Amino acid sequence: MAKVKNAEGLEALPHARIGPIMGLVKVIRETEGPDDVYKLSQKLHFELDDLLPITEAAEILGFVKIESGDIEPTPLGVQLNDGDENQRKAIFRKQIEHLPIIHTVVEKLKSQEHHRVGKEFLIEILKKQFSLSEANRQFATALDWGRYAELFEYDRDAEEFFLRPEQPDANPIEGEA
Q: What are the pLDDT digits (tens) for 3-24?
């Protein structure tokens, strides 16, 4: 599956929430051999167009391999599926921490004295690369993925990203295999 890029070459995050990504990996882990993506969409009662962003996200994150319309879990996908919640979060964190949108937020948070950054910081960066509508969708996906991975938190009332007090100086992956 091709990765989505805009005119400036910034890779867009597929619009897929954590639950469906994890559910996809679980379903294909439970079957023998590769699954046909089209048949899988029927089995899951998804329109193919709704399943594709989920499969794309799982592929970009390294959890599945897709070839000639067939999808199967990678060894990392098996590890993700078979791990406990903390292991899944650690694997997910490792897979997303270098994605440009996520990395930008984390680095900006680390550089700020109070480790807080307003939503507009990221929206302004995204608007340079995407339409306002797409910038908002990218923001929502980055927020969902980053919070699940515990790379940052988000205060909806203040519309600010922030690091928990124990996060600022810590490398989120350090010491994890």
A: 444 334 468 999 999 999 999 9
* Cα–Cα distance list, 72 to 27, 28, 63, 78, 145 (Å): 10, 6, 9, 10, 22
Q: Calculate the CA dihedral of residues 6, 72, 36, 89 and round it to 10 degrees.
A: -60
**Angle at the Cα of 78 from the Cα atoms of 75 and 80, rounded to 5 degrees:** 110
Entry pTM: 0.84
Count of residues making up the chain: 177
Fold for the domain defined by 18-82: Arc Repressor Mutant, subunit A (1.10.10)
What is the per-residue pLDDT across 33-75, written as a single tens digit (0 to 9) for each? 898 999 988 888 889 899 999 999 999 999 999 999 999 999 9
Cα–Cα distance, 23 to 88 (Å, whole number): 13
